[in-house]
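[#protein-structures] MJ: dropping Putative glutamate--cysteine ligase 2 here for a structure pass
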Amino acid sequence: MRTVGVEEELLLVDPETGEPRALSAAVLAHAERDDADQDVFEKELHEQMLEFATHPQSSMESLRAEIARCRKEAARHAGEIGCTVAALATSPLPVSPAISVNQRYQWMAERYGIATREQLVMGCHVHVSVESDEEGVAVIDRVRPWLQVLLALSANSPFWQGHDSGYSSYRSRVWQRWPSAGQTGIFGSAERYHRLVSEMVATGVILDDGMIYFDARLSRQYPTVEVRVSDVCLRSGTAALVATLVRGLVETAAREWRAGREPLDHSVSLLRLAYWQAARSGLTGELLHPATMRRMPAEAVVRALLDHVGPALEDTGDFDRARSACEELLREGNGATVQRELMERTGSLRDVVTACVRHTQG
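AK: finished. structure tokens for Putative glutamate--cysteine ligase 2:
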């Protein structure tokens, strides 16, 4: 059974006002004194961010518990410094991001200017094990049109600098400002994948292969495919659902490759339209069906994803739980829906943030 790991980026906020706090260095220093958490939390681009990485899990129930545990540990360490954590993909309240003291991040700030300063966005990255680079690239080629559905499910960033952005996932729009981010064409082989990465680094536009920000890529450190399309999810259960669906997509794609089935040959231009539509409407409107690239109700497209990965999820015993979680999400709304409902009810973005702090910890 393929193992799965999750990386989540959380926003550090004041527990009373909801305003972002640039305290990641202090929170990390506190976590490093805890032997159990020394390899869990990491520095990110901005001081208002805190990242954690779970250990690889084979059981999705274990992964969900691990995500919930890491979130609670993050809140505990932050609480010792006078702040807390919120699983928000952008800050609803106005913020002036502070770039972390780090040679790499300083290089990026000088190189990319305002695009770096505005990258206070929090995502969720899912790692799924693969047997080889060849299998990994075959998977990347075949999951391309389906990843936009994960973006719609996870969308959790409707507000930007104190205003409603009009998007369900504005984080994904900000992320596209990196020159190496986004959708890819079909590679066809691991050799072609690695050749393109080498050519991109050789241009000097990006620092190194750590800046290959494809929506799905081969991990630099682990024998995994890393899917990077999702917003950080408001609830840990949604994050576990996204991870479950990613594992289903990876296994389904690997089976198609072994059976000699070619990937859907959608152009990058069409994929960009599909991702834009998912970022705009989330689960509240229409999405582009991954097979036909024609508009359909979001509910129908989510069910098409479940049908696509169904056999793989049945084999791991995850199908019923994934279907139930998708139905609950369609019924109750994703993070963007919850945030907008909170804003409509309270009229206060501060109240939105403080309520989302509670959602973050379940």
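MJ: nice. The first strand starts at residue 4 and ends at 13.
AK: one more thing. The mean pLDDT is 97.
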